[in-house]
């Protein structure tokens, strides 16, 4: 039986084996959400980037590619643009860990009487929440891509978006815990973001691809997120949604476990 966790205000070390400090997680999450709300340029840049890709791909290539599985290319690529917003936003939110390390906040959290999972889970939830909020704004432009929105498919898409953002945010936390300085994070982020997006089926159909590409698609977590979002928005292959979400959740747990171990090594 677990004992009651010691509160942060008491100044005594909480047992290291207590898995979660909900109050601490909420504090980390709230801090990230306040930071996100104050950075309006980050939100505007995310929306602008998504619109550029939507109009450049969806409308620029629709005449050349024709229909895909009964959908226009603009309809097909719209969920992929949402996936792009999620991966950019989720990984970008993790950069605050590098920033906090340089200015000492990370060390304060790590030596506080709270489990190591507090920082990792709080950061993951904060990144996923901000990424989902930014992605939800993109849904407003669905009529331009001839995607019909209903309360049911919007709700399903939001769930798929949040689970996808959780998985990618957990990956971002692992990367941020590994990077030691602020300058290198941007380079690593760009090196990872573009391949994950390009090889996720976001901008091209995954059927009848070469075997080597199919293998990459299978090990790419964003593939499952894009498939789930596309299924919910376009009512396409809905039976695959539970499997896609399950894979994302398993990936998230693995990444969170790795990140927690990495936080212990920093002390």
Kindly describe this structure:
The protein is mainly alpha-helical. It has one domain (19-266). Helix content is 73%, strand content 0%. The protein contains twelve helices and no strands. Helix 4 runs antiparallel to helix 7. It is globular, with a radius of gyration of 19 Å. The two termini are 28 Å apart. The relative contact order is 0.14.
**What is the domain tally?**
1
DSSP helical segment count: 12
Low-confidence stretches: 1-18
Structural class per helix/strand content? mainly alpha
Chain-averaged pLDDT: 80
Biggest beta-sheet profile: none
Rg calculated over all Cα atoms? 19 Å
Percent helix? over 70%
Distance between the termini: 28 Å
Could you tell me the strand content as a percent range?
under 5%
Summarize this entry quickly:
With 267 residues, the protein is mainly alpha-helical. Helix content is 73%, strand content 0%. It has one domain.
Index terms:
267 residues, 12 helices, disordered N terminus, 0% strand, mainly alpha
Provide the fold topology.
Layout: H1 22-38, H2 40-59, H3 62-65, H4 73-93, H5 95-103, H6 105-111, H7 117-138, H8 151-178, H9 182-198, H10 211-219, H11 221-234, H12 241-266
């Amino acid at each position: 039986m677990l004992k009651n966790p010691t509160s942060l205000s008491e100044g005594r070390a909480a047992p290291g084996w207590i898995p979660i400090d909900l109050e601490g997680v909420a504090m980390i999450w709230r801090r990230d959400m306040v930071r996100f709300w104050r950075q309006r340029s980050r939100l505007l840049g995310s929306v602008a980037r998504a619109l550029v890709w939507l109009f450049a791909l969806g409308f620029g290539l629709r005449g050349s590619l024709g229909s895909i599985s009964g959908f226009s290319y603009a309809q097909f690529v719209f969920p992929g643009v949402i996936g792009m917003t999620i991966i950019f936003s989720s990984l970008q939110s993790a950069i605050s860990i590098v920033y906090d390390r340089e200015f000492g906040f990370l060390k304060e959290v790590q030596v506080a009487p709270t489990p190591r999972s507090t920082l990792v889970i709080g950061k993951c939830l904060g990144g996923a929440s901000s990424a989902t909020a930014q992605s939800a704004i993109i849904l407003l432009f669905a009529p331009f891509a001839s995607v019909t929105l209903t309360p049911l498919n919007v709700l399903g898409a939001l769930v798929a978006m949040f689970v996808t953002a959780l998985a990618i945010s957990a990956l971002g936390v692992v990367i941020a815990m590994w990077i030691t300085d602020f300058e290198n994070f941007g380079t690593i982020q760009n090196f990872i973001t573009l391949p994950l997006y390009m090889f996720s089926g976001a901008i091209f159909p995954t059927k009848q691809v070469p075997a080597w590409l199919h293998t990459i698609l299978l090990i790419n977590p964003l593939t499952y997120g894009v498939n789930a979002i596309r299924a919910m928005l376009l009512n396409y292959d809905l039976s695959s949604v539970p499997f896609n979400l399950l894979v994302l959740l398993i990936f998230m747990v693995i990444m969170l476990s790795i990140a927690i171990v990495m936080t212990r090594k920093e002390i």
